């Protein structure tokens, strides 16, 4: 494989948003260790931090919430697209990708590329994203869309729409922790996509739509559903070893393990494991949590046996699956819930890219044939 494969170790941007230290297993979000931020911050606080570089005071937080509250309603075209997507039984990530691009119709200043116009676009995208995914889930279950409840924050709104009832505050706390955990993570594939699109001076709707497409794949944001399926298939701690061994013998990848940057345990896994444990403890049934812990230990042991020296450790997706299951969400929804949380980070990167923009345009190394000559017979 070529040394440039996957752009490993290539630094392609400078950022003040987050720092991933793959050797130490540390993640810093705008100066805060993840372990301090995620269990305490609401998603709105994390959003403000990334967009402004500092945490908000109470007045600034209220202004942000008010701003978001004013943009909850979905335009007619978005509702239509969601209904058609549900009729075609498309996955929530496809519906989200299609719906985000329709939001250009409610852009207040479509001709402007001013900072203010982009800030307005950012607010309307973030405000509507949980409403899009929550209501799409309802449509997929054969239910009617619900009007968003302006009293609720981002996490509460999403849970209200999915479950159709007042959200449980513990579930809201867990989702705030999850979204604050995944809001940003260096120059991952989807964030890079958003920055590349922005660097051409395209628009923010295109950047976010492209990023959703990049996140969808199973090597990036598509892993938590399969990770949970794997735990359910295993069923009991005794089955973990034969089941996982067979997978590795068959050459399959274990979902929720391995990472391009982390060569030690992903720090997000610990934050989310603690959130998951709280949820399962409170529900009075730890069995799935304990099973997942035991599957994790077996997987790590077998990965070291099958891929010695590769340092394949638990990544964020394994415990994402448990947290999202713990708050009553189905695996089909997991990637789209991830996308809604990561959206705040993508948008922060769009702004950062615009601030010091230069077209991102790497080179390729030509390895094809040379010296061919044209003859009429070769065109037949
Ligand atoms: N299970 C089994 N083997 C693995 C795994 C895994 N989860 N991950 C990597 N490997 C193996 C590869 O087969 C390869 O082995 P080889 O050299 O013998 O062929 C070696 O480890 C290196 O793998 P690469 O694909 O080169 O590593 P890369 O850095 O490109 O991959 C990735 C990182 C895509 C996350 C990979 O570890 C993987 O596929 N994991 C499973 C999917 C997953 O959990 N994705 C979520 C990632 S977190 C996120 O994006 C939010």
Overview of the molecule:
This protein folds into two domains: 18-167 and 186-219 and 336-355, Orthogonal Bundle (Citrate Synthase, domain 1), CATH 1.10.580; 224-326, Cytochrome P450-Terp, domain 2 (Cytochrome p450-Terp, domain 2, Orthogonal Bundle), CATH 1.10.230.10. It is 57% helix and 3% strand. The chain is built from 16 helices and three strands. The chain has helices at residues 34-37, 43-52, 58-69, 76-87, 92-102, 115-140, 154-163, 169-182, 189-199, 204-215, 224-234, 237-249, 267-283, 287-306, 316-326, 334-355; strands at 18-21, 26-29, 32-33. A three-stranded antiparallel β-sheet has the order 1-2-3. A hairpin with a 2-residue loop joins strand 2 (26-29) and strand 3. The site of acetyl coenzyme *A has 19 residues, from helix 15.
Count the helices. How many?
A: 16
Q: Tell me the series of helices and strands, N- to C-terminal.
A: EEEHHHHHHHHHHHHHHHH
CATH class of the largest domain: Mainly Alpha
| Strands in their spatial order, largest beta sheet | 1-2-3
CATH superfamily of the largest domain: Citrate Synthase, domain 1
Average pLDDT works out at 95
What is the CATH T-level topology of the largest domain?
Citrate Synthase, domain 1
- Please estimate the helix content: 55-70%
Q: Provide the low-confidence segments as ranges.
A: none
What global shape is seen? globular
Examine the secondary-structure arrangement and name the CATH architecture of the largest domain: Orthogonal Bundle
Bound molecules: acetyl coenzyme *A
Q: Structural class of the helices, strands and pairings?
A: mainly alpha
Q: What's the story with the biggest beta sheet?
A: 3 strands, antiparallel
**Whole-angstrom Rg:** 22 Å
């Amino acid at each position: 494989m070529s040394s440039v494969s996957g752009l490993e170790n290539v630094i392609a941007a400078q950022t003040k948003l987050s720092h991933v230290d793959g050797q130490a297993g540390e993640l810093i979000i705008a100066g805060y260790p993840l372990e301090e931020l995620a269990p305490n911050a609401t998603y709105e606080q994390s959003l403000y931090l990334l967009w402004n570089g500092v945490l908000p005071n109470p007045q600034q937080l209220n202004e942000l919430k008010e701003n978001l509250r004013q943009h909850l309603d979905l335009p007619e075209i978005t509702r239509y697209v969601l209904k058609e997507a549900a009729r075609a039984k498309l996955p929530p990530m496809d519906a989200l990708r299609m719906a985000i691009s329709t939001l250009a119709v409610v852009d207040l200043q479509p001709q402007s590329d001013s900072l203010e116009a982009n800030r307005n676009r950012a607010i309307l995208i973030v405000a509507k994203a949980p409403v899009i995914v929550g209501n799409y889930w309802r449509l997929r279950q054969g239910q009617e869309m619900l009007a968003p409840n302006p009293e609720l924050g981002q996490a509460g709104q999403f849970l209200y729409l999915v479950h159709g009832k007042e959200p449980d505050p513990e579930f809201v706390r867990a989702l705030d922790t999850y979204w604050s955990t995944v809001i940003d993570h260096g120059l991952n594939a989807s964030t890079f996509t958003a920055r590349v699109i922005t660097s051409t001076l395209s628009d923010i709707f295109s950047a976010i739509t492209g990023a959703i497409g990049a996140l969808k794949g199973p090597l990036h944001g598509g892993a938590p559903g399969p990770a949970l399926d794997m735990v359910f298939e295993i069923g009991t701690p005794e089955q973990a070893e034969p089941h996982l061994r067979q997978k590795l013998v068959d050459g399959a990848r274990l979902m929720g393990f391995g990472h391009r940057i982390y060569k030690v345990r992903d720090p997000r896994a610990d934050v989310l494991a603690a959130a998951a444990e709280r949820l399962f403890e409170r529900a009075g049934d730890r069995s799935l949590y304990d099973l997942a812990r035991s599957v994790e230990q077996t997987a790590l042991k077998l990965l070291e046996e099958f891929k010695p020296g590769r340092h394949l450790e638990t990544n964020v997706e394994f415990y994402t699956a448990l947290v999202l299951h713990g708050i009553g969400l189905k695996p089909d929804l997991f990637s789209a819930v991830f996308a809604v949380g990561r959206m705040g980070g993508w948008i922060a990167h769009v702004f950062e890219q615009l601030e010091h923009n230069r077209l991102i345009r790497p080179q390729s190394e030509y390895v094809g044939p040379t010296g061919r000559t044209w003859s009429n017979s070769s065109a037949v």
